[in-house]
Amino acid sequence: MSEAVDYSAVTTGAARRRAAALGLACRYVVAELPGAPLRDGCADLVYTGKGALIWMRDLAAWARDVARLLRPAGHLFVYEAHPAAALWSWDADEPRIRADRSYFGDCFVNDTFPGNGAVEFQWTLGEIVNVVLAAGLELLHLAEHPEPFWRPGGITAAAWSGRLPNAFSLLARRSRQTSQHPQPGRLHEDRPARDRVAPHVHLIPVEPGPAVVGDPVGVQQRPRPQQGFCRRIGS
Ligand SMILES: C[S@@+](CC[C@H](N)C(=O)[O-])C[C@H]1O[C@@H](n2cnc3c(N)ncnc32)[C@H](O)[C@@H]1O
Q: What is the pLDDT of residue 207?
């Protein structure tokens, strides 16, 4: 039996219907992460990805929650947008680096479908790896991929032609020793949780839209920027 967590009732409802249609045994839990209401050590495998980490305000807390959920020797698999991909323009002739974003920025405003207007947190690849290690997991594999995990229809971006990283995958494992309890890490102190920007984040309810697979527009609540929320460069 699989269990899936998402704080959107719209998304979980669509996924529940899809699982039923396919005859898959999956329980969907509506809850905010980190802080999954699932018991310690319940998972052989935790998967997260395709546009999930950008919503995590406290990445270290997310990694600790994952480590808590894994049984000893259980695995974490992440398949996500490459953090650098936020910098690529979607120009068709050649890829350009957007002047209004920074790889080392705290966050940026998504200005394309489907997340248009939402604030996404910017985590570097190093930060992602370090929170996983600091949560007590062993890194088994890290790969960068030229193919984005999703191509919006009707767009042909030169940045997706194979020269630039657009996605990454990560496989990590919890220790086999049952006695080992993941310890809060010390590797992530450069840029810990986005607490300093959090007070500026507004969570406003939006009307649930039609559920489209892979479409975060359907989320019931999403952060909206206030003026000065992001350190936007050149705008
Ligand atoms: C782009 S979708 C990715 C969905 C899924 N991982 C997939 O592969 O299709 C992002 C999802 O994250 C959910 N989400 C965002 N922030 C969350 C949070 N803090 N806790 C739980 N779910 C969250 C949204 O409701 C949305 O359904």
A: 33
Mutate which of 16, 28, 55, 62 for ligand 1 pocket (most atoms within 8 A of beta carbon) = 55
Please state the atom number of ligand 1 nearest to the C-alpha of residue 6: 22
DSSP 14-36: HHHHHHHHHT--EEEEE--SSS-
Alpha carbon of 24 to ligand 1 centroid (Å): 20
Q: Please give the structure tokens belonging to residue 52.
A: 């999930």
- Cα Rg of the chain (Å, integer): 18
Place of tokens 């996605």: 167
Over the stretch 52-66, which tens digit does the pLDDT of each residue have? Answer: 999 999 999 999 999
DSSP letter string over 85-132? GGGB---SSS--B-TT--TT-SEEE--STTSTT-EEE---HHHHHHHH
Q: Three-state SS for 211?
A: coil
Q: What is the pLDDT of residues 6-36, one digit of tens each?
A: 999 999 999 999 999 999 999 999 999 999 9
- Name residue 107's beta-bridge partners: 121
Higher pLDDT, 98 or 178: 98
Q: Per-residue pLDDT for 228 more than 90?
A: no
Domain boundaries, the chain: 43-224
pTM, to two decimals: 0.82
Q: Which residues of 138-158 are buried (b: 16+ CB within 10 A; e: fewer)?
A: eeeeeeeeeebbeeeeeeebb
Topology (CATH level 3) of domain 43-224: Rossmann fold (3.40.50)
Measuring from each residue's beta carbon to the nearest atom of ligand 1, which residues come in under 6 Å? 6-8, 11, 32-33, 49-52, 55, 214, 216, 219
